[in-house]
Structures are given as C-alpha cells and as structure tokens.
Amino acid sequence: MSHFICLLNLCILCTVHGRVWTTVEGSTQEGDLFEIDSDQIGLRIKGREYRFKIDRFVPSDKKFIQEWAKVPRCHRCSKQLGNGRIKEAGNYKFHEACFKCLVCDKVFQGGEKLKRDEWGGMVHAKHFHQAKMCDTCSRIISMNAMSPKQVFKDGRFACASCASDGVFESQRMEEVRKRVWPTLVALGISSPIGNVRIRLVGKDVIERQALKINARGNLRGLTLTTYKIVSDGKTVRTSFDHEIFILYGMPHIECASVLAHEYAHIWLNEKFIEDTPPVIEGFCNLISEATLVKEKGKLASIIRNNMKQSDNPVYGTGYRRMKQRLTVLGWPALLDEMKSKSKPPAFR
Ligand SMILES: [Zn+2]
Ligand SMILES: [Zn+2]
Ligand SMILES: [Zn+2]
Ligand SMILES: [Zn+2]
Questions:
Q1: Which residues of the chain are under the pLDDT cut of 70?
Q2: Fewer CB atoms < 10 Å away: N or C end of the chain?
Q3: Among the bound ligands, the one closest to the CA of 122
Q4: Residue 2 within a domain
Q5: How far is the CA of 98 from the centre of ligand 2 (A)?
Q6: Minimal CA–CA distance to 54: which of 312, 297, 315?
Q7: β pairing state of 195-201 and 236-247
Q8: Are residue 174 and residue 237 in the same domain, yes or no?
C-alpha cells in the first residue's frame, strides 16, 4: 500500500516540476507536454506555451511522446482521464469538471444548447455572442484563463497558443523572413531589387494605409511600393522602395504566409505586372499557400482552408481561379504568364 502512495507522490512531483527535454543538439529545457499536433508538440515552459517539431528531440523524448499519446486525455486540461466520470462531445473527452462553458465557466449539466469551435472548445449557445475568438485560429478563448498578452491594443484577441508564438518584434520578424525566402526562391520568385522595410503594426495602421490604395477586406498585411524613373537621355533607370505593413502578434506560421503574400506583391510591382484584383490577389495567395503546404500542424491547415473556402470575390475566388491555372501550367509557366502582363510606364 505504501508503495502506491509513494508512486503517486512521485507522479505529482513529475507534473509540478515538468519533464526535462533534450534536443538532438544537446540543449535541455524543463517543460510540460500538453499537446501533440501531427509532427509538433506543445510544451508549457514557465507558464508559457511553445511549439516544437518532434524531430528536434532525442529518442527517449520521442518515446515519451508516443507513450503520452496512448493515454486517453481530457481535451480541456490535457491530464489523464482516470476512473472518474467522463463527458464526451464529438471526438473529444473531458473530465466532468472540465466539461464547461468557456464564457461563464459553468459545468454543462446536459440538455443545454451548445456551440462549438473547430478545436473542441464549447460555450452555451446563449453565451456565444459574448465569446472572444482567436483572431488567427478562431478558437473560442477561455475567459477565465485569458492573460493580458492575449488582448491586443487594436481590439484583436489571441488564444493562449497563438499568442505564445506571436511575432511582436523585428528580431522574430527577421527569423520569419529567413524562413520564407527558400520557399519563394524554389518557386522562381527573385529577390527584390529595391529597398524593403518591414513594419509590425496594429490593425488601425493597416486600415489607414489601405485607404491610400483602395484596398478592402480583413487585411493582415499590406505593401506600398514607390518607384522613381530616372533618365539621362540615353539610359532609363528605375528604382523601387517598398514598405510592408504586417499585423503584429500573428503566430510564426501565419506571419510567414502573410509575408510571402506581400513579397509576391513586390515581385509583381517591380515588374509592373497588372491585372484585375482577383488575379493579382489570387496569385499572391498562391505564393502564400506555398509556405503553408510544408507545415503539418492544424493551424496551417485551418489557414489554408480559410483561403480555399473564402467567399471573398477577390481573395477567395481569385485564389481558386489562380490555383486552377497553376494546376494547368505549373509554376514556371505561370510565372511567365504573369510576366507577360508587364506594362512598364511609358517614358519619353
Ligand atoms: Zn480535465
Ligand atoms: Zn456559459
Ligand atoms: Zn489561436
Ligand atoms: Zn494582397
């Protein structure tokens, strides 16, 4: 009997202090596993949530992940489902005490009308209008557990998971930029000739800038290009200057997809490629999607699905049209077709 108590104590110690994780490069980090999402895991480190590729860890950690995955867990608190009463909703299981509304925090009794997000989060239907949704992944945010860093100054909200991976400063933006370029180069997109400035800004700034170019919709990024043509009578030289505005706080993956979209605009702008908004934005969304294809997590597939299913006549319809074109032509011919639409300004 005393043996069991001893084991139990050990177990509690384990969960309080977190497990030590070791990467293949040999660095260590203490953290609690709370989620496995395809080839990534979520670790809670000092109260913050982080995401890592499973590949990064040593075999003993991978084994731990495998074993962890085998145990049935509560969808809300990710702790093991014991012998107590369990509630089920769709594919998700919950401790009875964890089966509660994300707005009012009251346990569901059964028989109430509920509304659910794509991630298994639930609220009373009558509380849905009060629910705050993550601006990126549309997860309903737990009001009870919401921290100040999930509330952005410009009125957006982020779930704990997206906020923990949010790109807020230029240093992380630089990491995103480095991650995006190999994909763009592989597609045949050349790097800009002109100077590019990237600015992380709030929704208010993007909307103000959007007025300048008559852009509309739920914009996550925006590019303004200015050019100058200089001629000495014999040769004509064009110089470009680009300013990319990107919403701050988007998780790494989304930020990369938006940045790729904006670099596609720069590529088009430097070549003076013109067409209707659905063709232009559809093309930029194709480039954006290419950065998401490699990502296996659920967030990437949600962003892709939003793009595929969007009923926006420019971004959605345009994307589907260009996707068809890509299927017919392939990347090299599609880029050539775009280049053929180049209309450099007439110059005397
Ligand atoms: Zn639970
Ligand atoms: Zn409620
Ligand atoms: Zn989110
Ligand atoms: Zn665009």
A1: 1-17, 47, 347-348
A2: C
A3: 2
A4: no
A5: 13
A6: 297
A7: parallel
A8: yes
| Ligand sitting nearest the alpha carbon of 299 | 3
Amino acid letter, residue 335: L
Ligand 4 midpoint to CA 13 (Å): 51
Distance 76 CA to ligand 1 centre (A): 5
Which structural domain, as residue segments, surrounds residue 271?
Answer: 170-339
77 CA → ligand 2 middle, Å: 18
Conformation bin of residue 221: beta by default, left when phi > 0, alpha when psi is -120 to 50: beta
Statement to judge: residues 47 and 123 lie in one domain: no
Residues 6+ positions from 83 with CB-CB distance below 8 Å? none
**82 alpha carbon – ligand 1 mean position (Å):** 10
Same domain? For 221 and 105 the reply is no
Residue 35 sits in a domain whose CATH number is: 2.30.30.700
Q: Which residues pair with 43 in a beta bridge?
A: 33, 50
Are 160 and 176 found together in one domain? no
Task: Kindly identify the ligand whose nearest atom is closest to the C-alpha of 73.
Answer: 1
Same domain, 191 and 118: no
In angstroms, the Cα distances linking 335 to 180, 188, 278 are 18, 8, 16
Ligand 1 centroid distance, CA of 59 (Å): 28
143 lies in the same domain as 187:
no
For residues 263 and 320, membership in a common domain is answered with yes
Closest ligand (CA of 80): 1
Whole-model pTM: value is: 0.82
Label the pairing between strands 86-89 and 48-53: unpaired
122 and 229 share one domain: no
Tell me what pLDDT residue 12 has. Answer: 37
Q: What's the gap in Å between 127 CA and the centre of ligand 2?
A: 5
Per DSSP bridges, beta strands 92-95 and 86-89 are antiparallel
